[in-house]
Amino acid sequence: ANGALRWNHTFEVSEELIGKFGGIFLLRAKAIDNALNEKVTFVLIRIDPTPPELNVD
Q1: What is the pLDDT of residue 1?
Q2: What is the b/e burial string over 16-27, where b = at least 16 CB atoms within 10 angstroms of the residue's CB?
Q3: Where are the domains positioned within the chain?
């Protein structure tokens, strides 16, 4: 996103990547401007591959 003030990136997570049990993953993003100022941020993402269950009586 060269020169962009804002951008989005969508990515898919495969079962091969998260396994059958999911887990907590660290997402790291880094930005560098034209003056070579840097900013790094981290976000923890919890992935639970178990489908929801609903019982109606």
Answers
A1: 63
A2: eeeeeeeeeeee
A3: 1-50
